[in-house]
């Protein structure tokens, strides 16, 4: 039986480059995300390249995550992530939100298939990370296939 497990790592850096805040959390894999993966396997078999899952969004809605979620509650910003895969069945995406991008009381994180709209694979809510205008926020999600 295939199961997916997601994890998030959030690092907030000040203008001086010093780490100001850090969070780790587990999340819920969404129903639409599971459907996306099933569709991807079919598409990959046909050698299509239309499927991506490499955009991280951050937001300000603290409503608990649920498998039925299809979007963040209140999206503040979305950024293209750097995608990697390790030999231990982990799909990893990391995005850095530069100074001035996605400022505010950040509490939710999501992985998407597009830079706007798209399918949300997973969502996580954590305690607030206050990202100021000069801060840099690095967000990483890992999806483990087991």
Provide structural commentary.
This protein has 146 residues and is mainly β. The model has no long low-confidence stretch (mean pLDDT 88). It contains one helix and ten strands. The chain has a five-stranded antiparallel β-sheet with strand order 2-1-10-7-6, with no helix packed on it. Strands 3-9-8-4-5 form a five-stranded antiparallel β-sheet.
Low-confidence stretches: none
Number of strands: 10
| Rough outline | globular
Number of helices: 1
Q: Main sheet: which strands, in order across?
A: 2-1-10-7-6
Work out the count of structural domains: 1
Order of helices and strands: EEEHEEEEEEE
Helical content band: 10-25%
- What is the C-alpha radius of gyration, as a whole number of Å? 15 Å
Major sheet details: 5 strands, antiparallel
Structural class: mainly beta
Tell me the fraction of residues in β-strands, as a range.
over 45%
Mean pLDDT: 88
**How many angstroms does the end-to-end distance come to?**
8 Å
Quick take:
With 146 residues, this protein is mostly beta strands. It has one helix at 31-45; strands spanning 4-13, 19-26, 28-29, 55-59, 75-80, 82-86, 90-97, 104-112, 120-131, 136-145.
């Amino acid at each position: 039986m295939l199961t997916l497990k997601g994890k998030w790592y959030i690092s907030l850096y000040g203008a001086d480059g010093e780490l100001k805040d850090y969070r780790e959390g587990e999340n819920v894999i969404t129903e639409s995300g599971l459907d996306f993966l099933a569709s991807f396997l079919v598409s990959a078999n046909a050698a299509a390249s239309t499927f991506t899952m490499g955009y991280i969004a951050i937001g300000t809605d603290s409503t608990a995550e649920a498998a039925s979620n299809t979007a963040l509650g209140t999206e503040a910003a979305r950024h293209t992530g750097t995608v990697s895969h390790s030999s231990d069945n982990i799909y990893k995406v990391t995005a850095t939100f530069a100074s001035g991008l996605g400022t505010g009381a950040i509490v939710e994180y999501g992985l998407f298939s597009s830079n706007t709209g798209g399918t949300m694979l997973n969502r996580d809510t954590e305690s607030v990370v206050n990202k100021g205008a000069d801060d840099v926020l690095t967000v990483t999600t890992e999806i483990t296939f087991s």
